[in-house]
Request: fold
Amino acid sequence: MDNNNVMLIDGMALLFRGYYANSYGGYIRKTSAGLPTNAVYGFVKYMLDAISRFKPTHVICCWDMGSKTFRTEKYDGYKANRPDAPLELVPQFDLMKEVVSSFNIPNVGIAGFEADDCIGTLARKFESDDTDVHILTGDHDMLQLVTDRTRVIIMKKGASNYAVYDAQTLLEEKQLTAAQFIDLKGLIGDTSDNYPGVKGIGEKTAVKLLLEYESIDGIVANLPSLSKSVKAKIESDLDMLHLCRELATIKCDAPIDCAVEDSLWRPDPDKVREKFLELEFNSLVKEISAFHSVVA
Reply:
C-alpha cells in the first residue's frame, strides 16, 4: 500500500459550493423535466478538477446525515443559526449520491455524526496503513486533521484554486499546530457553527495565548500569570470554553466500515456517460474520455 493516495471529499462543502457557484442571477440549471441539477453539475466539475490535479489512487465521499448529531445533544444551539437549504438544492442531495456512485466512489455517512467525523476517522485509519491522505474541502476546521501523512486541500475562490496544507505550511502560515486549531476554536468559538467560545476573546488574543501556553490546559494552568482582564474572561466562561473545545474536536473514532480497497479510482466511463446523459450534462459527456485517460 506504499503508493496509495486516498482523497476524502467533503461532500456537503462541494455540493453547497457547486450550488451557489451555479445560481448566478437566480438562474438554476435544470433538466428538460424540471429537475434542478446546478449543484450536482458544479460538484462534478470541482471533483474532476481536484482528481486531475492531485491524482489520487482512491476516492471516498463523506456526507452529513441530518442535523441531529452528538454535538446538538451536548449543545442545542449548535448550528441552530443555519438557514434551511434552498428549495432547489433539496432534491440534489440524493441525486448527488447517485452520481458519486456512478463513478464507483463510496458514499460514507453515519447518523449522529458529521461528515468531518467520517473524514477524520478514515484519515487516521488509512494513515496507520501507510497511506497518504488528501482531504478536499472548503472548511478550515479540517486543518486540525493535518499530520505528516494527511494534507488538507482548501478550495479557494475561482476554478482550480487550492491552498494545500501540511504540518509545515500550517505552522508557517497560521503559526499553529493542527492540535492548536481545536483549542483556538474553543477560545474564540465559531459563528458559522453557532458556539460562542470565551466572551471577549478574539483570534489575536487567542493565538497569542496558544503561542505562549501551547494549549487550553496550559492556559488554564497558568491563569494567575494572565492579565487581569483576560483571566476574568476565561474564569467566567470556563465551562463554555471546555464545551466549545469539545464541539470543535473532530472525532476520529466514528463507527465506520470502509476499506481502502473498496475505493479504487477506476470509474467505468459507460456507467458515468449514462448518468451524464440522463442529467443532460452534455458538455461533461465530452470530458469523460479526458478524465478516463488520467486514471487508465
User: Anything to note?
Assistant: The chain has a mean pLDDT of 93. The first strand starts at residue 5 and ends at 10.
